[in-house]
Amino acid sequence: MRPRLRPLIALLGLAMTWTPFLAPAGTATAAPAPAPRPASAPAALPDGLALTPPMGFNNWNSTGCAIDEKMIRDIANLFVSTGLKDAGYEYVNVDDCWAAKERDPLTGRLTHHPTRFPSGIKALADYVHSKGLKFGIYTSAGTETCARTMPGSLDHEEVDARTFAEWGVDYLKYDNCHNQGRPALERYTKMRDALRATGRPIVYSICEWGQNKPWEWGAGVGHLWRTTGDITDSWQSVVNLFKQNAPLAKHAGPGRWNDPDMLEVGNGGMTDTEYRSHFSLWSVMAAPLLIGTDLRKATPQTLEILSNREVIAVDQDRLGVQAKVLRSADGHWVLAKPLENGDVAVALFNETEQTATIATSAEELGLERRSGYLVRDLWKHRSTHTAGVVSATLPAHATALFRVSADGKWWQAPPDAALGLRLPPVAEGIPGNITPAGEEITATVSATNNGRTPLITPKLGLTAPDGWRVRQLGRPTTPVLPTGRALTVKWRITPPPGTPPSSAPLSARLDFRAVGHGRVTATANETVNVPATVPAGVTDLSRADWAWASNGYGPVERDSSNGGARGGDGRKITINGVTYDKGLGTHAPVQLVYYLAGKCTQLATDVGVDDERDPREPEQGTVTAEIWADGTKRADSGLRTWQDPAVSLKADLTGARYLRLVGTIGPDTNRYDRIDWAAPVLTCRG
């Protein structure tokens, strides 16, 4: 043996006190009970349909009523040309507004809209079928559909079901609008019977919004049922629907699926990180995957998310189990979904606004006890092995999705070196990735060896944008990193003075050697935001640029109410009948952060619940509004309802580096919790 190798071999001997790592694991020892399967639920319809969650497209989230037959043909063509069909998407579904305003006076049948669908629905269905796809349609279990552009199917179930079957419909979304107060079970069962009588296999989607707990009776009526209200293209909406759907795992299974509504991936209201979380969470919950973006405008990033076959395979696993929530404390979620081949899909989800490390174990997942486990990262498309810990350091709103196997072949992959890049929070509620020009921040990079074999000569690195100052504070390498040990190094990072407001990448890198696998590299990324400083003097705050925002519904609006999911759809700011020309329209829960640089002295504003609401829901719309200077609360509105006049707040901001506006939900839900910050005046020194 060469003398220079003796110290390394000695270190390896200390690090490896287990059976030889180049051989497969032996017979399993005593193991904990397998991950529990959901309790028994009502049997699915005996027709063999939707044995995996339906996958396809629905136009509503992206176009609403702005549809025509050309769009639907284009979508069918794109399913084929982009590879979405090969990835598993098969249903091309038309939502509301496809029919004429009135039924045919002679036959009583629904007919196609004469200008949107001049060729007729059967011709459109035939075209979709010619591409090897299936065709879906929409109506409502009421007198009108939700958009009020066409008749509903209430008391016309038989004739409509026959019409759909004759047209070649393969999927029916049956909505709940204008239902005349008739019992849901009665209305949805009647359409089930009508569809069954046609003899055509039609997947039946109960869009009842979860109002009458369809998960308790839907399995004998339809193939999937909405568990929630409508989704919107906002992070808060995705999280809210996820939280409503996740506890219902025991009701799902082949032919009977919980449906938290269609996908918003690609519609522009969230980041790609948030869209990956959306897609991951829907997949691990065995939810239907119905694309809701206009594929004619889809970016490569959107198609990459929607086409991830490894994630789709989790959703489509034929065991048909919806993931169970194992933990969710402090917004750090662990979900586990048993798969048909004995693997377990694991979602680690960071709901919070700060980077977090989330971990679970093979024991918690219910896997057999082994020397090691194979872990497949379904977004990075990379396999590693672990001695039992499965972990990830996740930026705000991110999800890691893994497939964990106990089949004994763990040694075929290198050890899992969990790499994390963390930026400490600036102050309470203020993310650490806000980095003012000329100011120093500290980044911590850590690599933890979760594997059974050691990391040899691991080395950490950090890369910042050109021109930024980067100063290393510790030794970035070590000869050997044994199982369960971590290598941690800090860096001081400073963007140059005068850096314009912008977003910039930070990238951490780990290089090491793994016995039997050669050189291995891992990376972790974080985006830092250089904020604008608020102007000197007296400023209308609605004209200033915020450093960071998180809004409960749609974007924050300037000089209008919050409106809906899309930007620019608000109304004139109005609080209890009093109107304002200037202000910020937000929706709880909301946080708005401004960089003050210690130059401001006061914020004065009127706050209250905007009058934009549904008068039929008088109990909704209760909020609190708070003004924070760094980590100290300086003003609080107390609980406000939609019936209250605006309250005037003044907050002392002397010396504060950051201003934070916070709006919280009252004791009811967050429906119509539109908080106006009206006539907001910020006073700063020159």
Short description:
Helix content is 15%, strand content 32%.
Overall pLDDT confidence: 92
Q: What is the terminal separation in angstroms?
A: 72 Å
**Assembly annotation:** single chain
Coarse morphology: globular
Which class best fits the helix and strand makeup?
alpha+beta
Unreliable stretches (pLDDT < 50, length at least 5) are: 1-39
Rounded to the nearest angstrom, the radius of gyration is: 28 Å
Largest sheet: 8 strands, parallel
| Cross-sheet strand order for the largest sheet | 7-6-5-4-3-2-1-8
Beta content: 25-35%
What share of the residues lie within helices?
10-25%
Number of strands: 38
Count the helices. How many? 11
